[in-house]
Amino acid sequence: MVTTRTPLIAGNWKMNLDHLQAIAFVQKLAWSLKDAKHDHSSVEAAVFPPFTDLRSVQTLLDADGLSLVLGAQDLSAHDSGAYTGEVSGASLAKLDVHYVLVGHSERRTLHAEDDTVVATKVAAAHRNGLVPVICVGETADDLETHGPSAVPVAQLRASLAGVPATAEIVVAYEPVWAIGSGKAATADQAEQVCAALRQALVELVGADRAAATRILYGGSVKSTNIASFLREPNVDGALVGGASLDVDEFARIVRFESHVGV
Ligand code: PGA
């Protein structure tokens, strides 16, 4: 199948890099991609800094006319009010944030975000004009008990409960056992689950929307394995954690087409 979906390489910085480090990082990344004549319309590159960096990065992207896209790592389910410590989708939208991660496994496990919370956050993102990057994935135990795709598909189904079928979303399949472990899934494993997720999308949002939706793989992605994932018909990009903190490595991942001849 020939896909018309533009690959998305998304760098999830997690709780790393302060706003000064973020400025230096983004400048260097933009320079490195420009130097390599990277075509942002053929592979989209996005960074997901911590909240405290967003204003600085937004100002830089705007001032220098850079084509990198801005994402946030989380948002509140609410738009305003007495929710101490939370950040609303409305505030993120004001900062030209385009994407927002929802339901990352670290939010699910460390902050007890269940499928209901994830669905309300997906709805909050949509309400505020943000594109949610909905993270789904099975633990090693889930894999043994339920097989590879049952849990991610159930999570995806639940996450869409509060949005219309027309809502733009990105799905990120991240097996929990592959995150930060250095043990990425194989390309075959990733394709199997991404294909099942796309099939679920056909039922949930219709064939056209499903065909247009990007499904990313995440979990120990590096410049040396990115090409194998992107060769798969149902994998449309990557959500990169650790390797997104090294400018040169992240730039190589974004430029996967040029150095491996996919
Ligand atoms: P990793 O993290 O690339 O360090 O495995 C991926 C993620 O958590 O999004």
CATH superfamily: Aldolase class I
User: What is the strand tally?
Assistant: 8
Distance, first to last CA: 15 Å
Number of helices: 12
**What's the domain count?**
1
SSE sequence, one letter per element: EHEHEHEHHEHHEHHEHEHH
CATH class: Alpha Beta
- Taking all Cα atoms into account, the compactness measure Rg is 17 Å
Major sheet summary line: 8 strands, parallel, barrel
- Ligands bound here? 2-phosphoglycolic acid
Task: Describe the protein's architecture and organization.
It is a single chain. This protein has 262 residues and is α/β, with parallel strands linked by helices. The protein has one domain: Alpha-Beta Barrel (TIM Barrel), CATH 3.20.20. Helices cover 44% and strands 14% of the residues. It is built from twelve helices and eight strands. It has helices at residues 19-35, 51-64, 89-94, 105-110, 115-127, 140-146, 150-159, 187-205, 207-212, 226-230, 247-254, 256-260; strands at 8-12, 44-48, 69-72, 99-102, 131-136, 170-173, 214-218, 237-240. It has an eight-stranded parallel beta barrel, surrounded by five helices. α2 links the parallel β2 and β3. α1 (19-35) crosses α11 (247-254) and α7 (150-159) packs parallel to α8 (187-205). It is globular. The two termini are 15 Å apart. The model has no long low-confidence stretch (mean pLDDT 96). The structure holds 2-phosphoglycolic acid.
